[in-house]
From TrEMBL:
SUPFAM superfamilies to which the protein is assigned, alphabetical: L domain-like (SSF52058)
Organism: Aedes albopictus
Keyword Repeat among record annotations: yes
Chief site of localization: other
Family according to the record: Belongs to the tilB family.
Domain Dynein axonemal assembly factor 11-like CS: residue ranges: 223-341
InterPro entries tied to this protein: CS_DNAAF11_C, Leu-rich_rpt, LRR_dom_sf
Family annotation (Gene3D superfamilies): Ribonuclease Inhibitor
Subcellular location: Cell projection, Cilium; Cytoplasm
Keyword Thylakoid: no
Name of this chain's protein: Dynein axonemal assembly factor 11-like CS domain-containing protein
Keywords annotated in UniProt: Cell projection, Cilium, Cytoplasm, Leucine-rich repeat, Repeat
Length: 400
């Protein structure tokens, strides 16, 4: 049995700097908790309490949570609605997939005037004829039931048969209670027989036998399932066990030293190869703090480490690491890395020098020689061809 401890609550209150006295939201789902305790004394300011996917069989010890607005008890072992009358601010109650057969127990919620949303989907009581009409009349403050809007017209129609529906539901509850008592005896006997059959087997074989056999849908079976699941989790290696679980170390370079390209965080990116620079736009998660990101620019590759996961891109041309820039958008969270090339392509470095010289010549004062291009150069006839072409035999090298 898992107990609600101060350590467990502090573990789930990291968003509140581990302070539980001022905690407004608490999530204790999937912890195999069987009893609600201590929360009302330690977390008086709670507005949201999430206890889904546990083994809770009774609603209790919540009467001090005067500010609680949303209570989620889905996927538990609850069989009746009780002890919620003092939750003055309760606005939404989720009891999906429990074992509530005593439908008339919801009448205890009549004084919860702020209750607007109620979810009972997946409970045995939802199979009763007239279930929805009865709930709409029993709780007139509801605005939605099982996610469906409750209109004034629906409520007025249901009011006509309210007494008849309530009497019929009481009879169905009695039948369900008798069936439930018989089920408890039947399941207890089945569990005893199973223990006798598997007492000589090891834990793995016992677990295999349990998961292969047929079982009834009831709180006792759900507890047994949680028990075997817990044993299986204990056998699995944890992430903190460095001897059994080792994170695969990424290979960043080939044996010859050539960098590889890899994308461990699996983020989208845009890469532009210009003549004079590279531009890399990383689609970093919008709400990720920049302190979790490290960027390293090297002559032949760029690397960004995002929460310990490496994004690396090999570059064809060398870059200027000292003049590379990295900027992040405050709107989208994307990161733009601009990397000037060391040897840009298709760029004439002498072009600026030539244009400067021409400017000087054109601006020279009168009386000085000015060199200007005039006419068209006939470069095709620089060397004469044909029979009339004169040949200087002295410039022809001797044949060997």
């Amino acid at each position: 049995m898992v107990r609600i401890t101060e350590q467990l609550i502090r573990k789930r209150s990291e968003h509140n700097e581990l302070i539980i006295s001022t905690l407004e939201e608490l999530s204790l789902h999937q912890e195999d908790i069987e009893q609600i305790e201590h929360i009302g004394n330690w977390c008086r300011d709670l507005k949201i309490l999430l206890l889904q996917s546990n083994l809770i069989s009774k609603i209790e010890n919540l009467q001090k949570l005067k500010k609680l607005q949303y209570l989620n008890l889905a996927l538990n072992n609850i069989e009746r609605v009780e002890n919620l009358e003092r939750l003055e601010s309760l606005n939404k109650l989720d009891l999906t997939l429990n074992f509530i057969g005593e439908l008339t127990s919801i009448e205890s919620l009549r004084d919860n005037y702020h209750l607007k949303d109620l979810y009972l989907t997946g409970n045995p009581c939802t199979d009763y004829p007239g279930y929805r009409d009865y709930v709409m009349c029993a709780l007139p403050q509801l605005e939605t039931l099982d996610g469906v809007e409750v209109t004034r017209t629906d409520r007025l129609k249901a009011m006509k048969d309210f007494k008849f529906n309530r009497d019929r539901i009481i009879q169905l509850e009695l039948a369900h209670r008798i069936e439930r008592d018989e089920q408890k005896i039947r399941v207890a006997e089945s569990l005893r027989e199973q223990e006798e059959r598997v007492k000589d087997l090891d834990e793995e074989e016992q677990s295999a036998q349990f998961w292969q056999q047929k079982s009834e849908h009831c709180p006792e079976t759900r507890i047994q399932m949680a028990k075997y699941s817990s044993k299986a989790r204990e056998k699995q290696p944890t992430s903190t066990d460095s001897e059994t679980v080792k994170r695969r170390k990424p290979i960043l370079f080939a044996e010859c030293g050539r960098p590889y390209s890899l994308n461990e965080p699996k983020i989208k990116f845009d890469f532009v190869d210009e003549d004079d620079r590279y531009e890399l736009n990383l689609h970093v998660y919008k709400y990720l703090d920049t302190s979790y990101i490290e960027v390293d620019a090297q002559p032949n590759y760029i690397r960004a480490t995002i929460k310990g996961r490496i994004f690396q891109l090999a570059l064809k041309d060398e870059i200027k690491t000292d003049t590379s820039t990295c900027k992040r958008s405050t709107t989208t969270g994307h990161m733009l890395i601009v990397m000037p090339k060391l040897n840009p392509h298709n760029i004439d470095f002498n072009l600026a020098r030539k244009s400067a010289c021409l400017d000087k010549l054109s601006n020279a004062p009168k009386g000085k020689s000015q060199h200007k291009l005039k006419g068209i150069v006939d470069y095709k006839n620089i060397v004469k061809h044909g029979n009339n072409a004169e040949v200087d035999e002295d410039e022809i090298p001797p044949l060997i």
